[in-house]
Amino acid sequence: MTTPPTLVACLLLSLLLAAAVAPVPAGAVCVPRGGHTKPGPPAKAKPKPKPTPAPAPPTPIAPGADIVRSLCLKTDYPDLCMSSIAKQPQPQLPGGKRLDGAGVLRLAMSAVRAKAAEAKAAAAALASDPKTQPLARNPLLDCVESFDDIAYSLDQAQKALAAGDRGTTGTMLDTVRTDVDTCDQGFEEREELTPVMAKHDAELAKLSSNCLAIATAAGLR
After folding, report:
1. How far is CA 84 from CA 134, 159, 167, 195, in A?
2. H-type helices in the chain, by residue range?
3. Which one is predicted more confidently, 34 or 68?
4. Tens of pLDDT along 145-162?
5. Strand, coil or helix: what is 129?
6. Which pTM does this prediction carry?
7. For residue 73, which of 215, 213, 219 has the smallest C-alpha distance?
């Protein structure tokens, strides 16, 4: 028996509709035409931040640093004041007692004394050096004498300070400053001479100026 054409057509249409609505199998992946997608470049690692350098440790200052700093800040050369005082042997104070204004002044005077001794040795060495200008020898010997005078004036200032004699303390500190200028004048009077002591004298002038300022600020002159 031959199947009618109408029945065959209905069967084919049913099969096509069933195929159109059939579910996609699990795990199936749709791949777009045109080939595989290339993976992008790997993400760059972020550079590690550089460690911040540790701050430099503060320069150690003598006991009673608060008053040292406060008095040195009243001078024209505060950095030199603090550094020169820090280099001096520190006084042995009774338990619990802090450095006072007179103690700071004594340390500043010790710095002048140490520098004057250094300058005296330098002047004496130059005076005996055959390479030194002949005309410079007498001014150099005058400098040696001036530096000796500085030591004497400091001794007198120390005694006056211990006795509470503010007038004499101030006078002797002024004398120290004058003694420094005396060395300079010996070279200034002879223009043909090289001022070989200028560097020593400049530092001594600053140190002696600091002593005067400290004595004034502390009410000791």
Report:
1. 34, 22, 25, 24
2. 5-20, 65-72, 78-86, 101-127, 137-163, 166-188, 198-217
3. 68
4. 999 999 999 999 999 999
5. coil
6. 0.70
7. 213
The string of pLDDT tens digits covering residues 163-191 is 999 999 999 999 999 999 999 898 988 88
Token digits of residue 181 = 């200028």
Show the tokens assigned to 76.
Answer: 């024209």
| DSSP secondary structure string for all residues of 172-214 | HHHHHHHHHHHHHHHHHT-TTS--TTHHHHHHHHHHHHHHHHH
Confidence of residue 34 (pLDDT cuts 50, 70, 90): very low
Contact criterion met (CB below 8 Å) for 138 and 179 = no
Euclidean distance between CA atoms 132 and 183, whole angstroms = 17
Q: Residues 103, 151: contact at Cβ < 8 Å?
A: no
Q: How many whole angstroms separate alpha carbon 160 and alpha carbon 169?
A: 5
Q: Looking at the predicted structure, is the pLDDT value of residue 196 above 90?
A: yes
Which of 39, 43, 91, 36 is CA-nearest to residue 68? 91
